[in-house]
């Protein structure tokens, strides 16, 4: 190896360039650093000396007279080179120069990024482990169009933003750099110099694939490629499992509080533990889908994930990204779909997040009348900015494609649709037509749904939308928002209000259970008894029910019987399936101990049996979203609080008669019409002793005679147990 003597450096970086690099204010570091002709420049604070190694030659670099941490030298040899640094103790090490590598992003990427049409944003932005010109490292790219300078910082450079300033990519506003030697698991953030020259709080990566454990807030380099899926059969057939005609019964879960390891510091389950325990439980209970409260990275546990900062990062609270894939893969192999709650409606103001990301209102609106939610103290995305809309719809595709998620439930859609949502006069700005609809949010949701259904076969999307906005679950080309399903919030409010009343008063509120059928088929509805109904002082499902303990359990069993017999897909939040007594607490686990009591175990058995019957019986699910699948038998018996209806499937499918007695009085000799004569068996009775009931009813079935009633050709006399729901089907089918 030959060592050259130090020489006069020609040409030196200009004094101005040198001073700006030393101060960390240079906005075009690649124009100065790296190799330019025969001159090499490198900025490395805190070292005693720096040499260039190229082939067998070693060239010492000299300090620039205007910048003590800027080293420069002449290197006449061509080819790749490496640096050798020595510290004050005489220790030396070699490393690659990030500024010898060319751009990674191509012209097509630049064009699509600038246009806001890059459907797979995560392929180009974020941190990607890769090999460049024989060097292993990580490519970083971030959108910050109004920044003067953006740097990658982390433990690898002492969090010094002067060390690794990035390359600006033209008019796109994207900055990028390839850092050799940075591997999976490395912690990083972005240091951004704002448009006014101010250093902003360090920012996590908006497209980062991993994060530190809270309360730490840095991003973590995660390799998300190369997972070995084992769910091919599920993926090939899932379209039928998500269809309007399919039985869909959803178990909504907050993963942090389903179960905890009390003996290990009360920690939540890992993704891999949930892949066994939760998946097995939901499968045993007969649910068809798991729905997770948001699992995108979020700083505050008390937000339950609904204030996400890392939209592309599965929360590290339960493990790294591949272990989240293990959970989804296990669910699919058990025949369970996975739905994720997705939150494009708002984001928190945490300093490391998206708020004023490059020193300006970038992701959000500058005007708080458009860009701030008073209800949640959060920021609102600027849906009309093409890059922001691109960020959101690309994120939706990311979860569906990279993690094989089967569906997205979109949170707080109503807050997106209306500019005056939860605002007083003067606190909002009308749209261009002087109306209240948020046209930009509507367009983003339509685009998201069109892409999701168009690009990822077999998935579903669900809107949590609490108003009468038309066409939420209608196709975009028919003028709708394009969701597959909509939560039926009106049904939920009416039915919970009814069942919360003392039975003696129910006859005055009879319509609350019939009104929902006036609009039950205007959308593709999910009947949601979600986490929102068991928090913030609302109590548990059991505590909502009136009466003695026996009556509370009977009422709850009747409510579930009513719900599973009603048109619409089903959703229960965890703990509701066994009548947890306490209100949900996100910081602890469910009260599994109550299953030692027979009444609680009975409710659990009922939900399991309801799911099994619902899934096995076409009449109960095939036409959940079609008026042809429903016919009233008795809708007007308000004095005795009795309801009865038929559920109907395809021609040839046996019908199901659902009969409800919602008073604590046993009714005998109640004649109800039926579509055919012959024996009808009780396929389910919520008063059965197995469920904790009194085992009253019709001794397993009734005989229908050719005696027309309720406009049907046959009828039967029934005994209706108190606070109960019966399901009857023709015998022999």
Can you put this structure into words, describing what you see?
The chain is of the alpha+beta class. It folds into 4 domains: 82 residues, Immunoglobulin-like, CATH 2.60.40.760; 115 residues, Immunoglobulins (Immunoglobulin-like, Sandwich), CATH 2.60.40.10; 262 residues, Glycosidases (TIM Barrel); 110 residues, Sandwich (Immunoglobulin-like), CATH 2.60.40. It contains 15 helices and 38 strands. The strands form 10 sheets. Strands 17-20-23-26-27-28-29-30 form an 8-stranded parallel barrel, surrounded by 4 helices. Strand 2 and strand 3 form a beta hairpin. Helix 4 packs parallel to helix 5. Catalyzes the formation of the alpha-1,6-glucosidic linkages in glycogen by scission of a 1,4-alpha-linked oligosaccharide from growing alpha-1,4-glucan chains and the subsequent attachment of the oligosaccharide to the alpha-1,6 position. One of its GO terms (cellular component) is cytosol. Pathway: Glycan biosynthesis; glycogen biosynthesis.
How is this fold's topology laid out?
Blueprint lengths: L1 E2 L11 H9 L10 E3 L2 E5 L5 E6 L2 E4 L1 E3 L2 E8 L7 E5 L5 E4 L11 H9 L10 E7 L2 E9 L5 E5 L13 E3 L4 E7 L6 E7 L25 E2 L11 H10 L7 E5 L6 E2 L5 E2 L2 H14 L4 E4 L3 E2 L12 E5 L6 H13 L3 E6 L25 H4 E2 L4 E2 L6 H17 L4 E4 L2 H5 L21 H17 L4 E4 L21 E3 L1 H11 L11 H4 L10 E5 L11 H4 L4 H17 L3 E5 L24 H19 L1 H4 L8 E8 L4 E6 L8 E6 L5 E8 L3 E8 L15 E4 L9 E7 L3 E7 L3
Parallel strand pairs: 1-5, 17-20, 17-30, 20-23, 23-26, 26-27, 27-28, 28-29, 29-30
Antiparallel strand pairs: 2-3, 3-7, 4-5, 4-8, 6-7, 8-9, 10-11, 11-14, 12-15, 13-14, 15-16, 18-19, 21-22, 24-25, 31-32, 32-33, 33-38, 34-37, 35-36, 35-38
Helix pairs in contact: 4-5, 7-9, 13-14
């Amino acid at each position: 190896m030959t060592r050259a003597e130090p020489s006069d450096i020609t040409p030196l970086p200009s004094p101005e360039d040198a001073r700006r690099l030393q101060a960390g204010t240079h906005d075009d570091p690649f124009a100065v650093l790296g190799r330019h002709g025969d001159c090499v420049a490198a900025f490395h604070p805190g070292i005693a000396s720096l040499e260039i190694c190229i082939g067998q030659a070693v060239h010492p670099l000299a300090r620039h007279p205007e910048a003590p941490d800027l080293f420069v030298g002449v290197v006449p040899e061509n080819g790749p080179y490496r640096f050798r640094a020595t510290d004050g103790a005489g220790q030396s090490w070699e490393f690659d120069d990030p500024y010898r590598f060319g751009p990674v992003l191509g012209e097509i990427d630049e064009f699509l990024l600038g246009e806001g049409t890059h459907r797979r944003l995560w392929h180009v932005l974020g941190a990607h482990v890769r090999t460049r010109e024989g060097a292993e490292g990580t490519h970083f790219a971030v959108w910050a169009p109004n920044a003067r300078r953006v740097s990658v910082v982390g433990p690898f450079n002492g969090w010094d933003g002067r060390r690794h300033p990035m390359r600006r990519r033209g008019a796109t506003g994207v900055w990028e750099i390839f850092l050799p030697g940075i591997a999976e698991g490395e912690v990083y953030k972005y240091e951004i110099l704002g448009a006014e020259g101010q250093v902003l709080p360090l920012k996590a990566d908006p497209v980062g694939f991993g994060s530190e454990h809270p309360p730490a807030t840095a991003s973590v380099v995660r390799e998300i490629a190369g997972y070995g899926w084992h769910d091919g059969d599920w993926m090939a057939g899932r379209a039928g499992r998500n269809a309007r005609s399919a039985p869909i019964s959803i178990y909504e879960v907050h993963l942090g509080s389903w179960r905890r390891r009390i003996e290990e510091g009360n920690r939540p389950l890992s993704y891999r533990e949930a892949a066994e325990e939760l998946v097995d439980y939901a499968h045993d209970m007969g649910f068809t889908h798991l729905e997770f409260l948001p699992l995108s990275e979020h700083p505050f546990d008390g937000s339950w994930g609904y204030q996400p900062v890392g939209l592309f990062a599965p929360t590290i609270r339960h493990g790294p990204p591949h272990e989240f894939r293990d959970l989804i893969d296990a669910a699919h192999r058990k025949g369970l779909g996975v739905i994720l709650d997705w939150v494009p409606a708002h984001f928190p103001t945490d300093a490391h997040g998206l708020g004023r990301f490059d020193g300006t209102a970038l992701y959000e609106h500058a005007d708080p009348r458009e860009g701030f939610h008073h209800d949640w103290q959060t920021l609102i995305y600027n849906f009309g900015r093409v890059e922001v809309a691109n960020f959101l719809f690309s994120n939706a595709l990311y979860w569906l494609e990279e993690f094989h998620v089967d569906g997205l439930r979109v949170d707080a859609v109503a807050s997106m649709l209306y500019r005056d949502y939860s605002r007083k006069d003067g606190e909002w700005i009308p749209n261009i037509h002087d109306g209240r609809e948020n046209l930009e949010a509507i367009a983003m949701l339509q685009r998201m749904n069109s892409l999701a259904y168009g690009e990822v076969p077999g998935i579903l999307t669900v809107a949590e939308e609490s108003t009468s906005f038309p066409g939420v679950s209608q196709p975009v080309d028919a003028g709708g928002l394009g969701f597959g399903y909509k939560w039926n919030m009106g049904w939920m409010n009416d039915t919970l209000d009814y069942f919360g009343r003392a039975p003696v008063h129910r006859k005055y509120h009879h319509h609350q259970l019939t009104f929902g059928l006036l609009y039950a088929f205007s959308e593709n509805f999910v009947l949601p008894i979600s986490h929102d109904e068991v928090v913030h002082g609302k109590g548990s499902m059991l505590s909502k029910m009136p009466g003695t303990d026996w009556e509370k359990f009977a009422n709850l069993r009747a409510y579930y019987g009513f719900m599973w017999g009603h048109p619409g897909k089903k959703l229960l939040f965890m703990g509701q399936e066994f009548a947890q007594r306490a209100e949900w607490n996100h910081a602890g686990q469910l009260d599994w101990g109550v299953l030692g009591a027979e009444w609680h175990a009975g409710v659990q058995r009922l939900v399991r049996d309801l799911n099994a019957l619902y899934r096995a019986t076409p009449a109960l699910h095939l036409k959940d979203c079609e008026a042809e699948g429903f016919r009233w038998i008795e809708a007007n018996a308000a004095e005795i609080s009795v309801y009865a209806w038929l559920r109907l499937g395809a021609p040839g499918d046996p019908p199901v008669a659902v009969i409800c007695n919602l008073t604590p009085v046993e009714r005998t000799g109640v004649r109800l019409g039926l579509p055919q004569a012959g024996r009808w068996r009780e396929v389910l009775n919520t008063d059965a002793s197995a469920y904790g009931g009194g085992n009253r009813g019709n001794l397993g079935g009734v005989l229908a005679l050719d005696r027309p009633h309720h406009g049907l050709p046959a009828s039967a006399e029934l005994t209706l147990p108190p606070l109960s729901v019966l399901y009857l089907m023709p015998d022999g089918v």
